[in-house]
Amino acid sequence: MNKHLLLTVSAVALTLVSCQHSDFEGYTRNENGMHYKFFNHDEAGPVLKEGDGVGISFTFKKQSNDSMLGSSVQVSRDGSGIIRYVMPKSSFSGSLEEGMMMMTKGDSASFIISADSFYLKNQKMPSLPPFIKPGEHLTVNIKIVDQKSPKELQELQQKQQAEMAKQAEEMQSQEKPAIDKYIADNKITAKPTESGLYYVESKKGKGPNAKAGDTVSVHYIGTLLNGEEFDNSVKRGEPIKFALGAGMVIPGWEQGLMMMNKGAKAKLIIPSGLAYGPQGNRGIPPFAPLSFEVEMVDIKPGK
């Protein structure tokens, strides 16, 4: 046999051996030390690449005793059990990312990886977690639920941005009519300030008004204009305390509380521009005007 041909055949044979032998039954080991096995595999599909959008479900276990360390069900934001992100580059040779880059949409596979490499190289932790011993392995089962190219990701983002802009425009157009209706329905005669804040006093207090630098103690009940309550210090049994003028509360509060003195009670009707604007907040939609029943419990003059 030709000497060069013999060397070529030997090299191929060694490569095949290195890509097949694994210390873990049922798994294949590749040249980077990745131990893997497929449950479902579409060999004709486009494999994941750096920059692709990916949606996965996974379970994460200690290989030695099969104890569960985590799953996508526990950490998915919407409770769907699917984690979505942009595929990063491999963090080290034989990494989990490299294993995923062998997969395509619809594939499911199991990977056995070094716990040391995962926690110290991939997660960049300063030391191993206390429940992991040096030299241990992790079993990670992954299913590729969704896959998008960078171009598809960009198109999807543009579509979502357009839909959000349309929704925001509709919400914004409904704000002033909602405030006008609330004012009329509640027979409020107070005029708005130049900024659009309505201050409706229900009880007079005593002493000077609060000013920037003062520390105020305030009880409040916050609702949307439809009456839906989103916060209530009275129920908690403790007023909120903060320094006026320090940017710790929404502008509508800053302006309204500086119109109050100790013991005063009032309703503040605050347009979204003085509240949480187009972003909204927890339980508060974008462009939502707010109503607050407030009581100035105490004022500590600033130095």
Structure, described:
- The chain is an alpha+beta fold.
- It folds into two domains: 3-148, Chitinase A, domain 3 (Roll), CATH 3.10.50.40; 174-300, Chitinase A, domain 3 (Roll).
- The protein is 26% helix and 30% strand.
- The chain has seven helices and 15 strands.
- It has helices at 3-18, 72-75, 96-100, 115-122, 150-185, 233-236, 251-257, and strands at residues 28-29, 35-40, 53-62, 68-71, 83-86, 108-114, 137-148, 198-203, 206-209, 215-224, 229-232, 240-243, 261-262, 265-270, 290-300.
- The protein is elongated, with a radius of gyration of 30 Å.
- The N and C termini lie far apart (97 Å).
- Mean pLDDT is 90; it is low at 1-18.
Question: Could you list some keywords that capture this structure?
Answer:
2 domains; 6-stranded antiparallel beta sheet; Chitinase A, domain 3; 7 helices; disordered N terminus; alpha+beta
